[in-house]
Amino acid sequence: MRQICAAALTLALVVAASGCNTEDLSDTVRTLPDKQDGKMTIHAATGRQSATRVAYEDGTAGADGKLTWQTGDRLTVVRMNGSNYVAHADDYLYNGTDGATSGSFTGTEINNPGDSWTIYYPHTVAVNTTDGTATLPMTGQTQTSDGNTAHLRNHLLLASTGITDLSNDFTLAMKNSIMKFNLSNVPAEVGKLTNLVWMVETANGTRCLTLSFAPEAVTFAAGKRTLTAYLAFMPEEMAVKAGGKFTVTLTGDKTYQTEITIAGGKTYAAGMRYTAAIDGTSIGWEEKAVMALTVKVGSDDRTFSIPFPTSGNTPAALTVDWGDGTALTTVASGTTLSSNDDFKHTYAAAGTYTLTIASGQKDKAQQQIPAINFYNNRTGSNSAGKLISIDTPLLNTKAENFSLCFSYCTSLSGIPAGLFAKNTQVTDFSGCFSDCTSLSGIPSGLFAKNTLVTNFGSCFSKCTSLSSIPAGLFEKNTLVTYFTSCFDGCTSLSGIPAGLFDNNTLVTHFNACFNGCTSVSSIPENLFDNNTQATNFTSCFYRCTSLSGIPSGLFDKNTLATNFNTCFVKCTSLSSIPAGLFDKNTQATSFSYCFSGCTSLVLNENIFSATNSHDRFSGKSMQLNNCFENVGSALSSGVSGGTAPDLWNYNKGDASWNTKNCFKGATHLSNYASIPTDWGGAASTQ
């Protein structure tokens, strides 16, 4: 059994050895013989104490913390054969009640042969398919209020290995630890807090963890100068070396930092909670203009270049700590930028390093650093591929264009709240995070200070690990006109928040906005109601293969829309279309391939007109080619694919229409035999 100790840690690193309360951090788990429909249920029972599980409840006045199971908790079960991975399932869902210390989890039964099992919490661990080990990133922690611990739930790694028989009891042990920050006499000038950054100097270089705060969660003022905050961390990653620095930085309206050198160093143990008590009256806070990045360099390429331009001058004196214990690099204000300047560093060994950039310009309204762009600047050093996380908000670059800024930062897994808060002049975020394939989350209020933005085109395109969009992400960006391909190819995105575009009344382009979002199963009602200037919905939901329905009146307010080409192509799970879907879109003339490949779709004849008016398109040059190609083709034999709108009988007026293959392959339609061949049907052209 592993014990957890609520140890006190001041910045002087005086650890309270007395009065240390222990907690049992293990779960006794057993399986019952209830296997049915390919499922298996495992049961977690109380260990020696109820001090485990996944919702952390911190005690008062230094009392023991407590962890309990919560609704929605899931486990990953791994089958092993010796030291080799065999298979795993990550869908073991908790069946019990909130706050319980025991309960059952049910998931997919694993029948693959092997000789042992490993179980992990949470289910979001990355399992190594060679040796069955698992990792859990400590990035992305966001605290919602002073003293709140809810964010720890998905950042506590529990594991049990070497289980030979699931019918016997076994224990889950916590692999990481918790740091509790008790801060008092914080400078009121910090104001609205966005981030707490904890940085330590380790034997392997500087390490950093960022705790973001939800908008309006904490505001320091004359009458509010305390904070209780929590960070989950991996103990081996944050061990302070002898003579190393322990640094805490608070970023809000202003940035303040405090640090101390620990002569003897400090190590941490798994399953322990530590308390860092920082009193601003005895340990000084200093105002700073500083930002931090974490990078990883390999043995074959140990050079990293800060991606500043290679022309122009530094706007202020800049000091770079490369995070490896080497001498600081100091560059004077007005220094000419070039490919041979001092913003390049070669590390002595491969590894992960947190580097900091401090600016002599503390006024965040002024330019503090040169413009930074990982895609366009100093590309020869592959800085984009080495970026692991952005640990603090960016300093002010005075740049208006952040297009492609972090594009192809394929290892970037975390970004902090308020990342762009100091860069209020930005107008263009097109492609900003495109192809950031490891980015799994977006902080709330990421663009809250960027009220001048007009372009979010391809902003998160091909962020294949991105699983959700925070509500209100764009609510302050009232000047936006382009959302083209904004979430294109976000294959892990599970949903679209209601009201996502409510405040973006000037948008004209939604083309390919959710193209290839293969995990999105539904569209919120009224999603585009306030976007009355929108004209282009081309490929908006192209290849949303899990989408099962379309809400009634989705496009009713978009009366200026002209283009719906390929809008729902290959939405293979789409089963129906609401009557009158395009009834109000009287300016629309382009419907090429609109529902092509919707193989489960059952049509209704009132798609374009609520009354199936034959004058709906009279006098307009229509593009209807391949519009309903192969619609309903996956339906079982004898199952009707609904009734097609009889477009071939609509009045053209003096206009020409492209109708080629409009209904090609849609043989399940009840009126397919009546569709002329020049529309892709079976009937002879009259």
Describe the structure.
By secondary structure, the protein is mostly beta strands. It has 1 helix and 30 strands. The protein has one helix at 383-386; strands at residues 3-10, 22-24, 26-36, 39-45, 55-57, 66-68, 74-81, 84-94, 103-108, 116-121, 126-127, 134-135, 141-143, 158-163, 170-174, 177-184, 195-202, 205-213, 227-233, 244-251, 255-262, 273-279, 286-288, 290-297, 303-305, 318-321, 329-331, 344-346, 351-359, 387-390. The longest helix is centred in the middle third of the chain and has 4 residues, at 383-386. It starts with a strand and ends in a 296-residue tail after the last strand. Residues 1-37, 44-57 and 59-65 have low confidence and may be disordered.
